[in-house]
Structure formats: C-alpha cells, structure tokens
Amino acid sequence: MPEIRLENVSKLYTGENKRKEYAVRDMDLTIEQGEFVFLIGSSGAGKSTLLKLIGGEIMPDRGIVYLDGNNVARHLGLWRVRLARTFGIVSQQSILVRKRTIHENLMMAARASGMQRKSRRAVEKALGIVGLPGVERCYPAELSIGECRRVELARALVSSPPILLLDELTANLDDDNIWDVMHLLNELNSRGTTVVMATHASQFVNIMRRRVVTLVDGRLLGDVKNGKYGDIV
Q: What is the pTM of this model?
C-alpha cells in the first residue's frame, strides 16, 4: 500500500518583493497508508504547498518526495496516470466547471485517471458515498456551497484512490455540514483510505483526535498522534 515520505524537502516561491522565499523548508515527514493526518497552521504556513508536493502537482526545489519508495519527480508518462489514481485531491478553490453538469464534471475526472468502461458506474457510486445520489443532471450553481464541496469530494473519490489530499474542504461550511464531512472521512479512513487534510476547523480536529501536523513558516513545528489543535509535543 502507498507510503508517502518527504526527505529534506524545500519549495521556494517569488514573494511580492521579487525575492525568493520558502513555502516549505527542510521538511522530513512520513505518512503511512491508513493514517488520518490533519495539517494545521496559519494562512501562509505552507499547508497547501505541502499537499501539492505530496500529490506531485509541483516538484520540490530541494529534497525528494517518495511514493512507495519511488521518487515522484523522476517518473513521467504512465506514472502520471498512476498518480491520478493514487491521489484523490480537493483543492482549496473549487475546480468544478460551472457550465457542465455534475455528471459531466465527474466523468472528466474519471477519464483523466484513465477510467473508461466503468466510469459511469464510478460516478454514481461516488455521489452515493457523499450522500448526493440523483444530482447528476444539476449544475454547480443549482447546489448549495456544502453540496458543491461534497461533489468535489465525490470527484476525488471517482477512481477509488487509496489517498485523499484535502485542502480546506470544510471552509465556509456550517457546523452540521462540517460534522457530516468529518463523519464521512472517518468512515473512508476506517476502510483503509489515507486522509491528509489541511484545515482550520479546530473544534473538529479536537473531537477527532487524529495525528496533528503543525506547520509554521513552512517548517514542521509539531507532529502529535491523537493530537488536538495547537499540540506541538
């Protein structure tokens, strides 16, 4: 089963003053299959960048990201299809195409991960998992914010990936919707899916008591099993 390992990983970006600054710096981190990990920290701490590095969306400027012992940066072609099947990703910003139906949005995700014959059935299954059966013909604008976020989770689940990378999935949701999402993620994790989730939902992090990884200025400040929001030891 996939294991994620980062060794001395750093990622630079160009700041407003046109100087190079670190988004992630000297990161050593291992996430084993089946773990549930909360990434916490203030805005700009490096959470989104770390998720993108793990998922192979961006490459490190220094260090190595491994997936099952393979250096993600050195594998192209068919490896990219494997990555699409390994990671289910929900970005901080919605990537649903507003002029396409929910069914069309999810079918695009299924085909991008290399699914062909079973894609229609996979779309129906994913929407059922997130509690939204029957919305296939709707457009994103016809759904609530909470429903759209669940559709994006369904999009990430289409290929039944072993790892979910979730960036502020519960942002702008009310407490009832957040709890529904957390309950669903807990169910998926109990079946073996790895969940790595960046979040500011401190109340729910404290309730869930899972592994809590804290970032400050791109550095790893805390890594606590069965932790609470703000734990660093």
A: 0.93
Amino acid at 10: S
Q: Quickly state the pLDDT bin for 16 (edges 50, 70, 90).
A: confident
4-93+162-224 CATH = 3.40.50.300
155: nearest Cα among 94, 78, 197 = 94
Q: What pLDDT sits at residue 17?
A: 77
Matching residue, tokens 């773990």: 35
What are the residue ranges spanned by the domains of the chain?
4-93+162-224
CA distance 161 to 84: 8
The full DSSP string for 26-94 is EEEEEE-TT-EEEEE-STTSSHHHHHHHHTTSS--SEEEEEETTEEGGG--THHHHHHHHHEEEE-SS-
Structure tokens at 130: 């997130």
Sheet holding 62-67, edge to edge: 20-31, 4-14, 62-67, 70-71
Contacts of 110 (CB under 8 A, 6+ apart): 119, 122, 123, 158, 159
Q: Within 13 Å, how many C-alpha atoms sit on residue 108's CB side?
A: 9
Residue labelled with tokens 């990201």: 65
| Cβ–Cβ < 8 Å for 10, 24 | yes
